Every structure is written in C-alpha cells, then in structure tokens.
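Much of our argument rests on the idea that a fold can be written as discrete symbols. Part of our work consisted of pairing the sequence of a single chain with a tokenised description of its backbone. The amino acid sequence and the backbone structure tokens for this protein are reproduced below.
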Amino acid sequence: MPKSIGGGDEDGSDGHSSNSKICGFYKWPYLASATPIDTSGEFFVSPTMKRSVRPLFSVLLLIIFAATLTTRNVVRRSLGSTELDDNNVVVQITPRPVLNATLLKYAAIDIGEARSKQEIEQLLEGNFGSLGRYRTFAAWRRFNHRDFRARTSMGTPLLLRSPNFYRYWLDFRRTLQNWVRNKRFQPDIMSELVKLVKLPIDKHNGLAGLDNNRFSSCAVVGNSGILLKNDYGDLIDNHQVVIRLNNAKTEGYERKVGSKTSISFVNSNILHLCARREGCFCHPYGVNVPIVMYICQPLHFLDYTICNSSHKAPLLVTDARFDVLCARIVKYYSLKRFVEVTGKSLEEWGSEHDGSMFHYSSGMQAIMLALGICDRVSVFGFGKSDSAKHHYHTNQKAELHLHDYEAEYAFYHDLVQRPQVIPFISGDFKIPPVVIYQ
C-alpha cells in the first residue's frame, strides 16, 4: 500500500506509467483542484503534488494502523484470548470459565472416606467376621470351612483353610494395597487411560506395539428402555468399539441395541454375582471380550483375585485416581442441582442423598472411560421416559437412590454443549466430540 500511495519511486522519479492506478484517490475535492490533467487524458502528478500528498498519506497510514489495532483488541475481548501458531495464524483460545469455588470445595469432600479406611484396614488384617454383609461370599468359602467337630477354647467351630487360600490371600492383599495407594485426586488421569486400558486390550487382541492413538470411534450403550423406540443396532455396531454395561442382554434385541461388544463394563457387584458360578463365569458376550470393572466396595477385590485367574480376556480394574475424578464430577453436579432445585444449603445435601453411600453410576464412568480412549463418542440408551421401561431387558421399576441420574444427565448435556464448564478435568485434556442418541 505505501508504494501505491506514494505515486512514484522512492528516489523521486515520476514513474508515470503506474501513477494512473491511484486515480481513485483523486476524487477528494482538495486533491482534485491541485491535479493538472495531461493532454493525453491521463492524470499527471507534478513534483509539487508529490510533496503535498506524501504527508497526507503518512497521516492516513497512521490512522489506519491505529484503527486496526483498536479493532483487533475489541475482537480479542469479545472472542477470548488469541495466540499465533507456528504458521502465524491467529488461533482462538476460549478461556476456561470461573467455577463456583464453594461447590468445588464440597465436591472434593468424601463423606464416606473414614468408613472406607476402617473397612480396608479390617480386610488387610483378615478380619472378615465383622463384615457381616460379606459372609455369603461363595467363592471365598471354597478355601475356608469351619470344622464343627473341632472347636476353639471359646467353643466356636475351628476355621480351616485350604493350601490355596494363602496364595489368593497374598494376591488379594497386594492388589488392595496398590489400589489404596493410588486413591487420590489427579486431574490429568484422563490422559493415562490409553495406557491403562486401551493398550492391554490391544495386546490381548494381538495389536501390541501400536502407537498410543485412541480408538477412532466408540459407542457406549446404556440399558434404558428408550432404546426400544429406535432401530439403532446397525449404527451401534458400525463403531470401532462398542462398550456395554453390566452384562445387559443383546440376544433378541439386536435390531435395537446391536450385537457387537468390544468391552464389557461392569461394577464389582456384577462380578460378585459371577463369582458364585463355576469358574467365575461372567461372559455373556464371549470369553474373549475384555471386562473393565470399577470397585464399588473394597472387599470385592476378593472376587477379583479369584476370578482374574480364570479369565482368558483381560479383567481390568479402573484406576483409583480415575474413580476419584468421576466421584468429584458427579458430586459437583449433584450439589449444584440440589441447591438450584431445592433452595436448601449445601450442608443438607448429605442427608438427602445418603452422602456416605452416594456414588456415580456405571454408565457415567463408562462414558468417562470412552472420553479417554476414543476420538469420537456416541451415547445410546441414556435417559428415561414415562412411556419407556426402566431397563430394556429387565422388569426393574425404579432407579437406585445412591445415584443422582438427573445430575448425571446435566453432565452429559455439558459434554455435548459446553465441555469447557466441566470441573476437575485437567485443562490439558481435550474432550472428544460427543453425540447423544435419544
């Protein structure tokens, strides 16, 4: 632009042939009166004209430059901060919103932590007698029985243990201790899920040695009766990975829910039931389908220890750091909804939701898992309707009270619409695109 405005070469020569291209500027009255016209019909710029025009154009340049800077600052403030990448292209960076500090503080408090620590200490000491709810553990009784003929000095039947008991006992203690040591808040755990979950599954499938890329697409299939309203079967099966929950039935429902299962995601209560079966059979989708399980109660590591030895496919326990992250996110949304809907104080939340037992659902953590190991996530069968069954494959009538499903639905909405407002997840982790099918 400076060369065009200058009307000639920088050394003061006329440059006559090129000066006709700036004629548009001479429509200004105070310039037109000073502009002689050559007999050839072309504009002629005299040396005197050059000297008078150059200062004006310099002022014009300064005005344009100042206006450009002002406009750029206004745009920055309206769109958020920007940065230049390696190619000097302006890239918009959306600032993370300021979250409610009080909600974050309350969500980070684990009301049941003291009770859980006490239970874990008893388990590590081998004190199962005080855990009355676990006396029906069938698999563990294979290695222990009471001899009613031989009694202790107190008159109680003597507990006899088989030689195999000690091998499983040592494995149980080591697994539980490792899990407890890992139980802490670590917001960047999402970035480690590929290493913790995907790579062991790839190795099982004969794909060891591949890079750390995530699965291209994943379908997380819930169990809601709303699945019966649509024929999503083919759409679900077309994903690279299909994650199903808590051994939900697919036979007879293929047109609605598909038939493909890549990962079986369960809570440890499901494995506890499977442990009662011969060989700890827990494979409705086939013995080669990997199982990912989160621990509802620390004592379920007894089931894991025994059943893990009989599984051909990987039986993976979610990292305790991942569990803590999921728990905080769900509690944050539950607290937020509780205050907004009821108008009550945060201190009253615990009594309303049985705070010590409050927990995320299997579906919520399965979706969180998919966010960490998949480039694109599709969600099916989450939600409810007055005209739909609670579960598409059972006659269960109601939700479990230890979950806050409405709070989890609010979380899913933010995953799709406003992922930047989701708390506790590290800002370095990029949440992949999520689509929810109703």
Notes: The two ends are 56 Å apart (CA to CA). The chain has two domains: 2-93, 101-437.
